[in-house]
Design a protein that fits this description.
Blueprint (H helix, E strand, L loop, with lengths): L16 E10 L1 H9 L12 E9 L11 E5 L8 E4 L4 E3 L11 H14 L8 E4 L5 H12 L3 E6 L2 H6 L7 E4 L5 H8 L5 E6 L5 H7 L1 E9 L11 H6 L3 E4 L9 H15 L7 E6 L3 H8 L7 E5 L1
Parallel strand pairs: 6-7, 6-9, 7-8, 9-10, 10-11, 12-13
Antiparallel strand pairs: 1-2, 1-4, 1-13, 2-3, 3-5
């Protein structure tokens, strides 16, 4: 259970920076960790992604300075007014970016990695995205469409799917009323998708595998609906590949940092869009998490201190 309490202010170490938080993105990982990961201690501040202003730097930090606005990621600590993070998990924000910048690293970084680093999406690709109304989903739709791919997406209602057409979604499938595998095969003349991006998991993953072409790839990048339930025989019989990764383990690498720096530029220039469904005050974090767990949203849930 989440509770809103006063705790001691964090103090940055020699290799850390202190950020005054302006916005907090409620990530799928935040929801999963709250439900299934034991607390390391109490009180414990949960949360991944924030945007804010650097107000102190450790003595060994040379690439950030006080006063810079940044988007930052950490395994814990986002649900607070102040947080400490590593400088190689921060991105200096271009002018003009607002609080939605908190939503960029996990969503767009994961989508970019799945589409272009763990796969090779081109203008000839057909990409199937599970859960297009979520953070990774709406990011993957835009990035794939901008690369010239055909994008098919699943959502929980027709309103979500129709709204995402302006961001590049070509075909939408309401998984609550339609057979996803059959619809994908119908849309692709029986061939199937080249690549599946699955940030949802659960029983639907098996249907996504069967909606791929022979030799296709599924990138599993999250489990908001639980552990994926799959029959590995269907992978082997279709010469299909299933991959998975956690971006949190490679945020610090030069390659990922460079790709996200470019994504922030594109967001600032209006080439990519961050969708925010609703904003809550931090004091109402429990309500924000409950809302984020509901179906029917379009975009991220954000909190402000």
């Amino acid at each position: 259970m989440l509770s809103y309490e006063e705790v001691a202010d964090p103090v940055p170490g020699a290799d850390e920076v202190l950020i005054r938080v302006e916005a907090i993105s409620v990530e799928g990982g935040d929801l999963l960790n709250r439900r299934i990961v034991p607390l390391p201690h109490s009180p414990h501040i949960v949360g991944y992604s924030t945007a804010g202003t650097v107000i102190a730097v450790g003595e060994h930090v040379t690439d950030l300075r006080v006063g810079q606005r940044v988007s930052a990621f950490g395994e814990t600590g986002s649900h607070a007014e102040l947080r400490v993070v590593r400088p190689d998990h921060c991105w200096v924000l271009p002018d003009g970016l607002d609080a939605a910048a908190a939503c960029v690293p996990v969503a767009f970084g994961t989508a970019y990695e799945a589409l272009f680093e763990r796969a090779a999406v081109t203008t000839s690709s057909t990409v199937l995205v599970q859960g297009v109304a979520g953070g990774v989903g709406f990011a993957a739709v835009q990035l794939a469409a901008k690369a010239g791919a055909r994008v098919i997406g699943t959502g929980s209602n027709r309103q979500q799917l129709d709204a995402l057409r302006r961001l590049g979604l070509h075909d939408g499938i309401d998984y609550t009323t339609e057979d996803v595998r059959r619809r994908v095969l119908d849309l692709t003349d029986g061939v199937g998708a080249d690549l599946v991006v699955d940030p949802v998991g659960g029983p639907m993953t098996q249907e996504l595998i069967l909606a791929m072409r022979e030799g296709g790839t599924i990138n599993f990048v999250g489990g908001s609906a639980g552990q994926p339930l799959i029959d590995p025989v269907t992978l082997a019989m279709g010469d299909r590949t299933m991959k998975g990764f956690m971006l949190s383990k490679i945020f610090h690498t030069p390659r990922v940092r460079a790709s996200l720096t470019d994504i922030f530029r594109r967001v600032a220039e209006g080439d990519l869009e961050v969708l925010v469904d609703r904003t809550f005050p931090l004091a109402d974090a429990a309500d924000a998490h409950r809302y984020a767990e509901q179906r029917g949203r379009l975009g991220r849930v954000v909190m402000t201190p």
